[in-house]
Amino acid sequence: MTLTEKDSQYLWHPYTQHKTSQTPIAISRGEGALLWDENNKEYIDAIASWWVNPFGHSNKFIADAIYKQLTTLEHVLFGGFTHEPAIKVAEKLMEILPKNQQKIFFSDNGSTAVEVAIKVALQYFFNKNEKRTTIIAFENAFHGDTFAAMAASGISFYTQAFQGMFIDVVRIPVPIKGQEQTSFDALENVIKNYNCAGFIFEPLVQGAAGMVMYEPESLAKLIQICKDNKVLTIADEVMTGFGKTGKTFAMDYVEADPDMICLSKALTGGTIPMAITTFTQEVFDAFYDDDINKALFHGHTFTANPTGCAAALASVELLQTQEMQDNIERINKSHLTFQKKIEKHSKVITARTLGVIFAVEIKSDSEESYYGSMRTKLYNFFIEKGVVLRPVGNIVYILPPYIMTEEQLQKVYSIIEEAIEMV
Ligand SMILES: *Cc1c(COP(=O)(O)O)cnc(C)c1O
Fold first, then answer.
1. Annotated binding-site residue? 300
2. Less Cβ around it within 10 Å: N or C end of the chain?
3. Is 132 annotated as belonging to a binding site?
4. Taking residues 157-185, what's their average pLDDT?
5. SS3 of 167, please?
6. CB-based contacts of 69: which residues, under 8 Å, 6+ apart?
7. Which residues bind pyridoxal 5'-phosphate (predicted)?
8. Whose CA is nearest to atom 10 of ligand 1?
């Protein structure tokens, strides 16, 4: 049996209707921005394998750090114990996070980073004897697939089977161009009419919605409204973190600091599943008490896994090299040049760029759904041409690993141009 035949016998894939979906491609090797399948066909990974892999596949520097940690201390429980890798990660993050972030909590993936933030927001007010139970989130948000994260997410086909089983979430419009005041007014109204504990948002770019972008000034204003009303703010930087927007964090563009930040995806350079939620001292202090009931009773078995910590530390060190910063700048410049060219195309509605993130919306005759027919046609075309891109409906985006060469990037652009001609 081939790998794909064995796969269909045993495996259940994420976001997949197995009856109608195509068979998956078996990947056997990766290096830099490239992947090879079992027949040795080469693919350019133009979305960094779901946005996790900025420094390239099979990165030696991170691999060495992992091996060294594996043969020193691979894991130890974090309840009642601590270790140097966790402390080093904390010290490193304190250097680069917004200055008001003072405490870090480890978990395993983006959804749990969000889950922790939402639970902390709710318990923060419980601990203070204030009745605040509503979470505010953006329309079309994506915050993950565990229950609280799912409740905060607004892309309905991910969550429709669970309607009525969620914590209380009220949604406001994203302050995209022309809708800023509507968004501010909606936030003021929600805060007036509900007992709001927290506001969770993807700062500046809504990833899963199709790289929807909005301005830092608008986010600063929304955060200020929350601060004026003592509503906690949660920046979900799971996608945007670690250089994707051109700065270390999207919040670095925003002149207002959030109370909590969620990190995962690129945290370990795409090697080991790990996530972090960070907090202000003020949030931490609401749990600091003689009363054990005020503690945060949340944890995961693999919390602060030392091997994951070693990978995170190596990743952040790579991000901070001049070479990687130059790569990010180069990709951004190329994106802007490509955007200027492509946005004039008669089949293009609009194109946008922030940092290494580029997206183009293609005209379509019918209302294009998330997994609609144009999407399938585009996806198959890219795969056939040896480029991994996962369009969201009629939106094609690129989120390349920072080490992607200029030649590879230009090839991705020209295949996108071909695809626009084709559909
Ligand atoms: C991917 C993502 C998540 C969920 O992370 P998982 O690791 O898939 O659980 C949460 N928030 C944002 C913004 C994401 O992009």
1. yes
2. N
3. no
4. 95
5. coil
6. 85, 306, 307, 309, 310, 311
7. 110-111, 236, 300-301
8. 143
User: In the chain, what's the furthest Cα-to-Cα distance?
Assistant: 66
pLDDT in tens, 56-94: 999 999 999 999 999 999 999 999 999 999 999 999 999
Q: What mean pLDDT value characterizes the chain?
A: 96
Decide: 53 in ligand 1 pocket, CB within 6 A: no
Counting from 1 in the atom list of ligand 1, the atom nearest the Cα of 111 is 9
Question: 142 in ligand 1 pocket by Cβ < 6 Å?
Answer: yes
Is 111 touching ligand 1 by the criterion CB < 6 Å?
yes
Cα–Cα dist 271/336, whole Å: 30
> Going by CA atoms, what residue is nearest to atom 8 of ligand 1?
110
Report how far apart, in Å, the C-alpha atoms of 240 and of each of 142, 152, 201, 321, 370 are: 12, 18, 11, 19, 21
Cβ neighbours, 10 Å, residue 68: 12
Contact 239 CB / ligand 1 (< 6 Å) = yes
pLDDT surpassing 80 at residue 100: yes
Pocket test for ligand 1, best of 204, 239, 357 (most atoms within 8 A of CB): 239
Task: Tell me where in the chain the CATH 3.90.1150.10 domain(s) lie.
Answer: 3-58+325-422
Q: Is 210 annotated as a binding residue?
A: no
Closest ligand 1 atom to Cα of 265: 7
Q: Cα–Cα distance between 139 and 124 in angstroms, integer?
A: 25
Burial class (CB in 10 A: 0-12, 13-18, 19+), 378: buried
| Parts of the chain belonging to CATH 3.40.640.10 | 63-319
Task: Tell whether 111 is in a known binding site.
Answer: yes
CATH 3.40.50.1260 matches 3-58+325-422? no
Find out whether 321 is annotated in a ligand binding site: no
CB neighbours of residue 181 within 10 Å: 11
CATH, range 63-319: 3.40.640.10
State the closest ligand 1 atom to the C-alpha of 141, by its place in the atom list counted from 1.
13
User: How many A from CA of 145 to the centre of ligand 1?
Assistant: 8
pLDDT of residue 370: 66
Cα gap 316→312, rounded to integer Å: 6
Q: Give the other-Cβ count within 10 Å of 309's Cβ.
A: 26
